[in-house]
Description:
The complex is a heterodimer of chains A (about 110) and B (about 240). Chain A is an all-alpha fold and about 110 residues long.
Amino acid sequence: MTADKPPPSLEDLDERLRKARSAQEHAKPPTRSGPIGQALRLSTEMAAALVVGAVIGWNLDSWLGTKPWLLLLFLVLGLAAGLLNAYRAAKRLQDAVDNEDKSSGA
Amino acid sequence: MAAGESPLEQFAIKRLVEINIGGVDASFTNSAAMMVIVVVLVTLFLTLSMRGNAMVPTRWQSIAELSYELIAKTVRDGVGLEGRKYFPFVFTLFMFILFCNLLGLIPYSFTVTSHIVVTFAFAAFIFIGVTILGLVRHGAKFFSLFLPEGVPIALAPLLVPIEIISYLSRPISLSVRLAANMMAGHTIIKVFAGFVVALGLFGIAPFVFLILLYALETMIAFLQAYVFAVLTCLYLNDSIHLHH
């Protein structure tokens, strides 16, 4: 029975190889941080920007002698930058999840 | 662990060889010794495991190839084709941090990456390098990174400082994340190890927990090295392609 079947053509083999390779390329990354890792990531993003804002404000204040107004201003800006950082990081995490769903769903 | 020893004792820097150059303390410390060990071990691991270069890889060769492919894929996905040039840098960084993290888990060794000085040096180097790269590639256009496209010009005085702070915060979040992860994990392990001794026979409960914690810490050691590489790629990508 099996002897009647012609051997698979080279094109067929090529096709299967390509399929296997693309499956390999779109395989999900071996590591995904858990919820704790994600929370830690987002919080460091926020805190870091706040610290930078505070440092800039503090130094400008002692340089220009405008204590404490620039510190307050840059704390607010730092907070905004921190939120922006966290927003972008969260968006990247979400994009990664979406891509994964798409590739595993297809 | 001797009774009464602090769980933070493991992070102490000890001078092994005192070197003083013109009033600058350049002593060879346990941290430096650990870095030398890491560099030697990474070099040995990669050269020895790839020596056979067999079609059907041995176990060691598989590990080396897996780490290579993981970072190659990260760079390709994160930066694109232009990123290939920077693969050696990202791969070196990843292997160095990974080995620092993993070797730190061996009792009585020292975790280089638990010190923010070390991680901040990495992060500052990446930050400065990426900024110079962006300036060289795009010139003044590089600063368009600080003003997102399609934003009304009236909002620029508010948005530009925010974007600049966000940009400046990168090396801090990058370095704090790695150092904090390493330090917190190692401190918790030591604290629980202290319970095992203090509780005597009942110490079996924290001991079991300690084993689980060790598994978690091994995973975190790997994960944090990977996250460092991923974020390096991300910052490279921003400098090369000028968008977030």
